[in-house]
Amino acid sequence: MAAAADTAKTRPKTSPKSIKFLFGGLAGMGATVFVQPLDLVKNRMQLSGQGSKAREYKTSFHAVASILRNEGIGGIYTGLSAGLLRQATYTTTRLGIYTVLFERMSKADGTPPNFFMKALIGMTAGATGAFIGTPAEVALIRMTADGRLPPDQRRGYTNVFNALIRITREEGVTTLWRGCIPTMARAVVVNAAQLASYSQSKQALLDSDNLAIPDADGGYFRDDILCHFCASMISGLVTTAASMPVDIVKTRIQNMRMIDGKPEYRNGLDVLVKVIRKEGFFSLWKGFTPYYARLGPHTVLTFVFLEQMNRFYKIYFLDS
C-alpha cells in the first residue's frame, strides 16, 4: 500500500487517455493541411512509369508543374478530405496508443523505456492504426491518382465519403481494406522508425551536455520547439529511407485495377518483383524527394502541434 502510494506521488501527472487520442488526431490533421500537396506529388511519382522505365514525371518539380497546368491550383489539394479522414483515424489511433503505452512502460520516476521498447510500442501502435485507417488510405490513393488518368478512365470521386460509398457499392466492402497487409507493414516500419527515432533523437538532444556551447541547464537543447524540430527532421529522414519500398507496394496495390477479370498484382511480393524487373531496383525509392519533403514537415508539424497541445493542457489543466 505504502509503495503504491509512493509510486502515485512520484509518477508525473498525465492527461486522460481520451485527450491523448484527441491531440494525436488533431496534430496529424493540422499537419496534413500543410503537406497534402506533397502527398499528392509523392503518390503521382510512385505511379509514374508503372510497368516500364519511361516515367510520366521526370522530377517532382515536373509533376507539380504538370498538375498545376492540367488541373489548376486547386488540383494540388486533390484528396484533402481523404487525407484528413486518414489522420482522424490512423494518426488518432497510433499516437494515442503510442502515448498510452509509452507512459505505461516508463518507470515510476518518469524514466522513459529503452530504444527497443520504444520501437516495439511504435510497431504495435502503427499496425493497429493502419488497420483502422486503411479505408481512408484507399480513398486517398485513388483520389490523388485520378488526375493522371484520361478523363474516360477517371473514377471521379467528389470527396472521401463519396469514395467510400462508391467503393463499397461498386466493388464490395472488403475493397476498403485492399492492401491492408502492406499498409500495416508500412505502418510497422514507419512507426518503429518514426516514433522510436523521434523519442531517441529528442532524448539525445536533451542529454547533449558535452557539446561546446551548453545552455544554462548544462545541455545545448531544451524541451522546446527547436528541439522538437531537430528531432523531427532526424526522424523524418530515417523513416523515409526505411519505409519507401513498402510504401510503393501499398500505393500500387491500392490503386490497381482488374485486367481481364484478374488483379494487376497478386500480392506485395509480386509488386516488388515487377517494379525491380521492369523499372529498376532504385525505383523502389521513386519519389524520395517529395516523400521526405512531405514526411519531414509532416513529422515536424505533427510532433510540434502534439507537444504544444500537451504543454498547454499541462499548464492549464494539470498544474492549475
Automatic annotation (TrEMBL):
Gene Ontology cellular-component terms for this entry are: membrane
Pfam entry (one): Mito_carr
Q: Which of UniProt's keywords are assigned here?
A: Antiport, Lipid transport, Membrane, Repeat, Transmembrane, Transmembrane helix, Transport
Q: Where are the Solcar repeats?
A: 19-104, 113-204, 223-312
Q: Which InterPro entries match?
A: MCP_dom_sf, MCP_transmembrane, Mito_Metabolite_Transporter
Sorted alphabetically, the Gene Ontology BP terms of this entry are: lipid transport
Q: Which PANTHER family match?
A: MITOCHONDRIAL DICARBOXYLATE CARRIER-RELATED (PTHR45618)
**From the UniProt record, which GO molecular function terms apply?**
alpha-ketoglutarate transmembrane transporter activity; antiporter activity
Q: Does the keyword Transport apply?
A: yes
Protein name listed in UniProt: Mitochondrial 2-oxoglutarate/malate carrier protein
Q: Name its species.
A: Sinocyclocheilus grahami
Q: Which chain regions cross the lipid bilayer?
A: 21-38
Q: How does it assemble?
A: Interacts with SMIM26.
